[in-house]
Amino acid sequence: MEAPVLVLNANFEPLNVCNTRRAVGLIMAGKADMVMNGRGYIHTVKLTIPRPSVIRLDQMVHRPRLRVKLTRREVFRRDNYTCQYCGRHSADLTVDHVLPKHLGGGHVWTNVVAACPSCNHHKGGRRVEEAHMSLLHPPREPSASAHYLFGRHLETNTEWGQFITGW
Ligand SMILES: [Zn+2]
Predict the structure, then answer these.
(1) Could you tell me the pTM of the whole model?
(2) What is the per-residue pLDDT for 26?
(3) Which of 47, 86, 103, 104 has its CA 20 to 30 A from that of 158?
(4) Which is nearest to 66 in space by CA: 9, 25, 22, 105?
């Protein structure tokens, strides 16, 4: 019942991911329809309910454009787990403030990059130029496309691809 279910808005835009329990609850309450089964059935004493993989809400939900939350995990993901100074691909990364905080650099998408510990140590509290370093890419805020937001689920839920592409 904890398996993830992709929830689509009435216009088929991917909205979020919930667990099977909640998805079945929405269907039973008449608030959503199953778009894709793909996971077999749930048997209760009285009925057999399809186990949904994708559902669609009957009513359109209006909400502001999503933004990707600034967290360590998302910074590493945006930077493809690569140190933005030396280009090393690593599981051992730190978040570096391009313009150091003590020089007024903010904790914002455009001022944070993934850095390996040795580059971060070498740069210290200096500006990039002062440390004679350079960035592989100028940091940007990742766009909250459906693929970016839900793409990590695709490996285990390949059938979601057709609903995520293009949003
Ligand atoms: Zn590095």
Answers:
(1) 0.68
(2) 95
(3) 47
(4) 9
Q: Which tens digit of pLDDT belongs to each residue from 131-146?
A: 999 999 999 999 888 8
Nearest to 76 by CA among 112, 108, 117: 112
Question: Sign of the CA dihedral 77, 79, 83, 87?
Answer: positive
Question: Residue 152's pLDDT is what?
Answer: 84
Q: Which residues contact 148 (CB under 8 A, 6 or more apart)?
A: 68, 142
Residue 116 Cα to ligand 1 middle (Å): 4
How close is the Cα of 143 to the center of ligand 1, in Å?
A: 25
Centre of ligand 1 from the C-alpha of residue 16, in Å: 35
DSSP string, 49-107: EE--SEEEESSPPP-PPP-----HHHHHHHTTTB-TTT--B-SS-EEEESS-GGGT--S
Distance from the alpha carbon of residue 82 to the mean position of ligand 1, in angstroms: 8
